[in-house]
């Protein structure tokens, strides 16, 4: 497909869980316009997370319309549109593509008891054989099984089940289509990239099998903008729409991570550690999540550990009360104290497992808790802070060392990526370059990159990434710190093993009597 020279703008839509965003990019990845709208969350019962699909769709289209209107006279230059969306959950649509009930989003916990029982049953091993991915309460198949048992009347009214981005795409094109990345977390058959009848049977969702959407390759042109969608967005009728991606994969692509050995860590509330691999390592079976890469040639494994912003905030509250006001200058002072302490040479070992949920990756242990080893009378606050920073990096390092390919490049994003200490520590501990990227809308840029290839703007994904993703900083590893970090990481792993044994008999505080 060839694109006229002047018509090379790309609209990337990121349908988020709480915020939906739209951005217009040029062919070199420059963000020309952006708009956002909040998504209203509905909680009809405790632990439920729903949204009104029609309301969310209007919010999404309003964001698109605002972004397009910010470039007056240039709508005709839009070459393609693509959508990223939060993964899994359940959007039930009728024959016309309209919702038959509220959408259920991924944070929903209504299937938690069912999932707990399922994970303890023999069929769960077969589930892992087919899906290769850890189960979550908000996964599509578990939700469909729940609806089949508790709301069987919706089955007859449903023509398609879908994910968030699929619903947005269906409005744009009039066609309900999903892609292998979203299927991987429904979950589907990881070997084929298709929806698995056997998995649906295992979770009691077989009644919905005939309601499955069509699965088409990520990035494929699946239709064009309809007249109704054109009126809602300002995008010209007939503009191609490329099949999008689940947001985790799209955000990874938007940081330019596409080749085996490349990785991105999202330093947020939890830390998402995602790496491109040539093959799947069976040792991590059932831990984290597995997706096909956007081009279908490799695998992406996401290992999320809970030692994120909450652990750092705890350290600041506990040890830096005089600096815990939250101002940027306060956190600069925290960083300065940590930097004044010797990197990997302070003698402390910190296990950052403060979450009540314990550890979810690269192993599952709901009992293990945080530990600080090596304290003595002369220990300074700066040394404690340095140990906290390093312990969080070692937890991520533990995730990467268990994956198949050797890590060659790490990109950081999320709020924690602004930290000089974390950037330096990641680079020195892993002995790889660490880079930051310019865009704040990595998921929208990710689908824009993939779409640009499928309309012929760029010849392949590697070229598109090189042209559309920009870095704003690069930290090179200091080889003199390789051995000190290796020794410190070895102490971290030995402390981890000891803590898992120590806490194994304690159980989780406060869990007694819960379902």
What do these coordinates show?
The protein is of the alpha/beta class. The protein has helices at 53-69, 112-119, 123-131, 140-150, 153-157, 164-173, 180-184, 197-202, 227-233, 247-254, 309-319, 328-339, 381-401, 420-430, 442-454, 461-468, 482-503, and strands at 9-15, 19-25, 31-38, 50-51, 78-85, 91-93, 103-104, 160-162, 177-178, 214-215, 221-224, 240-246, 262-267, 271-277, 289-292, 299-305, 349-351, 371-373, 409-413, 434-437, 471-475. The strands form 6 sheets. Strands 15-16-14-13-19-20-21 form a 7-stranded mixed β-sheet. Strands 3-2-1-5-12-11 form a 6-stranded mixed β-sheet, sandwiched between helices. Helix 14 links the parallel strand 19 (409-413) and strand 20 (434-437). Helix 11 (309-319) packs antiparallel against helix 13 (381-401), helix 13 crosses helix 14 and helix 15 packs across helix 16 (461-468). The longest helix is centred in the C-terminal third of the chain and has 22 residues, at 482-503. The chain is globular. It starts with 8 loop residues before the first strand and ends in a 12-residue tail after the last helix. The relative contact order is 0.12. Mean pLDDT is 92; it is low at 509-515.
């Amino acid at each position: 497909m060839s694109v006229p020279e002047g018509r090379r703008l790309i609209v990337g839509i990121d349908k988020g869980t709480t915020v939906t965003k739209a951005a217009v990019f040029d062919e070199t990845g420059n963000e020309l316009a952006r708009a956002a709208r909040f998504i209203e969350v509905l909680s009809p019962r405790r632990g439920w997370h729903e949204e009104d699909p029609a309301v969310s769709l209007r919010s999404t289209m309003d964001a698109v319309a605002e972004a397009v209107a910010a470039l007056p006279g240039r709508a005709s230059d839009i070459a393609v549109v693509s959508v990223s969306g939060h993964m899994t959950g359940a959007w039930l649509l009728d024959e016309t593509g309209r919702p038959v009930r509220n959408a259920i989003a991924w944070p929903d916990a209504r299937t938690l008891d069912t999932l707990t029982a399922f994970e303890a049953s023999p069929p769960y091993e077969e589930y892992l054989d087919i899906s290769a991915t850890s189960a979550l309460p908000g996964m599509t198949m578990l939700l469909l099984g729940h609806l089949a048992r508790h709301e069987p009347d919706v089955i007859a009214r449903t023509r398609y089940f879908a994910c968030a981005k699929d619903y947005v795409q269906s409005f744009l094109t009039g066609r309900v289509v999903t892609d292998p990345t979203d299927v991987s977390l429904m979950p589907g058959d990881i070997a084929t990239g298709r929806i698995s009848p056997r998995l649906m049977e295992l979770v009691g969702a077989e009644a919905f099998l005939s309601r499955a959407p069509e699965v088409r390759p990520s990035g494929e042109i699946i239709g064009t903008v309809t007249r109704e969608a054109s009126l809602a967005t300002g995008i010209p009728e007939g503009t191609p729409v490329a099949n999008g991606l689940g947001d985790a994969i799209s955000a990874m692509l938007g940081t330019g991570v596409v080749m085996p050995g490349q990785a991105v860590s999202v330093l947020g509330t939890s830390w998402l550690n995602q790496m491109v691999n040539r093959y799947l390592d069976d040792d991590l079976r059932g831990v984290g999540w597995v997706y096909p890469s956007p081009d279908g040639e490799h695998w992406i494994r996401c290992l999320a550990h809970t030692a994120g912003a909450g652990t750092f905030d705890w350290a600041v509250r506990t040890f830096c009360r005089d600096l815990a006001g939250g101002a940027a200058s306060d956190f600069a002072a925290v960083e300065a104290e940590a930097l004044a302490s010797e990197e990997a040479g302070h003698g402390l070992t910190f296990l950052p497992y403060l979450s009540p949920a314990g550890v979810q990756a690269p192993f599952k242990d709901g009992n293990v808790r945080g530990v600080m080893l090596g304290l003595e009378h002369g220990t300074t606050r700066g040394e404690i802070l340095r140990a906290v920073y390093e312990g969080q990096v070692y937890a991520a390092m533990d995730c990467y060392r268990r994956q198949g390919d050797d890590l060659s490049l790490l990109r950081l994003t999320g709020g924690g990526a602004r930290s000089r200490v974390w950037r330096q520590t990641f680079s020195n501990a892993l002995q790889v370059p660490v880079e930051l990227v310019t865009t704040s809308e990595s998921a929208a840029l990710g689908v824009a990159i993939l779409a640009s290839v499928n309309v012929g703007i760029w010849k392949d994904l590697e070229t598109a990434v090189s042209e559309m993703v920009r870095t704003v900083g690069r930290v090179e590893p200091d080889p003199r710190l390789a051995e000190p970090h290796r020794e410190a990481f070895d102490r971290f792993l030995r402390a981890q093993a000891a803590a898992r044994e120590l806490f194994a008999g304690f159980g989780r505080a406060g869990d007694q009597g819960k379902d």
